[in-house]
Structures are given as C-alpha cells and as structure tokens.
Amino acid sequence: MARVQVYLDPQDVDILDTIAEKVRIKRSQIIRDLTKTVALRYSQVAQLLTAKKSLKNPLLELGGIEVSKTGRASINVDEIYSQT
C-alpha cells in the first residue's frame, strides 16, 4: 500500500468515525473500501466513453431499415420506387 494524504471535511470525518465505531473497523479501511468502489465505477464509465460505437444498429437492421445506396434516399424516393 502507498501512503496518501487526503483532506476531508470535519462532518465527513465524523460520519466515518461513527460508521467505524458501529462496524468496528478502522476509518482508514472504510476510506480504502470507498476509494476502491468509486474507482471501479469510474473505470466502467471511462470504458463506456472510450468504447467504439458500432456503425450498424441491430434494431434498424431487424426492422429492414438500412442506409440508402445512393446516399440521398429522401431526395429521389420516386426514382427508387419506379425502378422496382
């Protein structure tokens, strides 16, 4: 373990001391547990933010909706339907 100094508000220290007394563990252990839990959550958020989004949307594919082959389907809808 590495020694780290943190500054806490006095009311937060009081809360930690109350919990430590009731649970019968040291304040430092509570701080380590809290830090680990929050760090894991932030790690999950970071992974979600850096994950590449899929170019294909499976819900749109299921509905038969796809990207226009011409790239301008809304402009030439009549041409598309007259070809079929």
From TrEMBL:
It comes from the Bacteria. CDD domains: RHH_CopG_NikR-like. One of its GO terms (biological process) is regulation of DNA-templated transcription. This is Ribbon-helix-helix protein CopG domain-containing protein. It comes from Candidatus Beckwithbacteria bacterium CG23_combo_of_CG06-09_8_20_14_all_47_9.
